[in-house]
Amino acid sequence: MATEKTTTTTKSVFSKSERKSLALEAAWEIDCLCRLLRKSKDGNWGIEGLADRGILLRVEILCGAITSALSDEMASGDDVRLDIYGISNDPVFG
């Protein structure tokens, strides 16, 4: 008769404020990495680097959307949706 070993792991539960703080910290680090990459290129992307530049710009926009959604009390849902999806519910700009 074989015996089974069971292992239980306890995962910590964190508060909404800690979750927000961790998400903002991750967004800040992503932003720093984008800035570092942009600085390392020193404006010299070349033709073959245009896709990389476009991806970098998109990552920066999404990082800004995360930051706005989590910490900018003045940012509307339309503002964040516009950054993420390119559309909003705004009748003029949507």
Detail the topology: elements first, then pairings.
Layout: H1 16-41, H2 50-71, H3 77-85
Helix pairs in contact: 1-2, 2-3
Give an account of the 3D structure.
The structure is a single chain. With about 90 residues, the protein is mostly helical. It has a domain at about 50-90. It contains three helices and no strands. It has helices at about 15-40, 50-70, 75-85. The radius of gyration is 20 Å and the shape is extended.
Question: What is the structure about, briefly put?
Answer:
The protein is 61% helix and 0% strand. It is mainly alpha-helical. The model has no long low-confidence stretch (mean pLDDT 85).
Write a concise keyword list for the protein shown above.
94 residues
Which percent band covers the strand fraction? under 5%
Count of helical regions: 3
How would you sum up the global shape? extended
The biggest beta sheet reads: none
Any low-confidence stretches, pLDDT <50, length ≥5?
none
Mean pLDDT: 85
Number of strands: 0
| Rg | 20 Å
Distance between the termini: 67 Å
SSE order: HHH
Helix content: 55-70%
Structural class, judged by helices and strands?
Answer: mainly alpha
